[in-house]
Amino acid sequence: MTLDHRADDAAALAPNAAAQAAAGTPFQDDATAVADTDRNPEAISMMPVAFTVNGTDCDLDLDSRTTLLEALRDHLFLTGTKKGCDHGQCGACTVLVDGRRINSCLSLAAVHDGDAITTIEGLGTPDALHPMQQAFVDHDGYQCGYCTSGQIMSGVALMKEPCGASDADVKEAMSGNICRCGAYTNIVAAIQHVRKA
Known about the structure:
Elements: H1 3-13, H2 15-23, H3 30-35, E1 46-53, E2 56-63, H4 68-75, E3 94-97, E4 100-103, E5 116-118, H5 131-138, H6 148-158, H7 167-173, H8 184-196
Parallel strand pairs: 1-5
Antiparallel strand pairs: 1-2, 3-4, 3-5
Helix pairs in contact: 1-2, 5-8
């Protein structure tokens, strides 16, 4: 049997695979194709989720795979919470859930049914900033600003967490929030200002 005959036999046995190969798409068996939610919308598992965000009751019907970050940004349009790494490594997506800070990119929205969630939009207003927001302004605790909402939310949570008095203690407690611009000295100064106030 020549190589050409083997290719013809393979195409006859697996027309789906041959068509996918010709189109330059990855091979996918029929069972996988049926389970693919992009091609089979009925396979998506939707579920009701109800939580309180910044004091407002929110009832959503979400794909069960929706993260809390996606629910906040894409469904409630609260875009102050940022998607940075989407792997829980940078802290840009930090929000408070029942007063405790979490990385919203790592948490499914459905897990928070009944919880009270606070985002950066729920801390203060432009005319009446939260003390932590004001301290970040006063101490230039930001540069590009992308990480700032997550830094502020972590800073607010830190006020209720056990943490030593030194700058080194604050740096350790804030180590889950990355500032790629390197404004760490000013961030620590802002947090310490609020702690001492």
